[in-house]
Design goal:
By secondary structure, the chain is mostly helical. The chain has 17 helices and no strands. It is found in: Cell membrane.
Amino acid sequence: MKLMQQINKLPRWRQNLYALWIGNFATGAGSSMSLPFLPLFITTMGNFPKAELTFYSGLAFSITFLSQAIVSPLWGKLADRTGRKPMLMRAGIGMAITATLTGFSPNVWTLITLRLIQGAFSGYINNAYALIASEVPQQSSGQAMGLLTTGSVGGQLVGPIIGGFIAGIFGYRIPFFIFGGLMLMAAVVTYFGVVEKFTPVKRQPKSKQKSAFVGVKNVHIVWAMIISSMLIQAATNSINPIISLFVKQLMHGQGNVAMTSGVIAALPGIATLISAPRLGSLGDHIGPKRVLTGGLILSGLVFLSMFLTTTIVMLGILRFIVGIADAALLPVTQSVMTLNTPNESISRIFSYNQSFQAIGSVVGPMIASGVAGVFDYRYVFLMTTVLVVINLVVVLGAYRRDQPND
């Protein structure tokens, strides 16, 4: 009772932040509970050769983000007219239904089709960022975005571990049913826990509609953050379609591969959960450019080291360090966009960012599947190193062009 009274005394944006943290946690846990085991789930649907298995795994993972990339700008425009809370409800309910149906997939093409539909209704975490970004005071932006990130990352931490345990005992379908239940919970928490004071953007004739980037400060840096989000997602998600297969290779097919894959998948989440709020606050004090640059350099060095790893222990250590790098990347890009974007266009900017993130989540796994199919699983890490280097060049070039007081 006293806890509820204390929460009610908080500013409205903080109350929304805590409710959306729960929603982000549920979304992160549910989605990560099943993703590391998609390749193993697909192996139960047929006897596929290695090249075909990696192709199906990459397609099943990335096709969700393909449809997400297509529809996100449409949802963003709708959010500017109806508010972010309806978009959160749409994502929660839509993903609850599609995730549950995915657990009943009788074959690989049904699985892929349901993943495609799921992508069209996704976007809970991105809309949570947009809602908080429209409310949070500028001096607390980095800290708020970092805290919100710990919700999704915390879910991504426990999801694979719980999912691996459940999948190892009850099979690969059960985590999808739990995913559906978690998204239903996120929708309920959002409905009762989030209050949005929203002023709709007046709909104008097409001839008078302004670009979302009108009024954006440091537009080259904002575009660099959007492109950076795409490259971060491409690099981070490139391993997801093959992680359980790579773990199986390193373990020589011995032991509980599903459980070990879950732990390896979750390790970055532990590091990000610990470091994201601190690095978010650090960005508020020393400037996001320094934090972002340091995170990219660390990320590149770790991915290059993964190319050389030959043991599960070393892979786990390096995955943990990747989590620290991740904590310095996505929250900072979100904070930079928030600080440079006016409220009337923030939903559209964040929807473009989500589309680019989704494109990265399509391109990264598909290229990785091709690389793994032709060469070896470890060459995926060499590919991600190249993506990180490109990202660093884009970010530094944008800052040099706009020359902000950072």
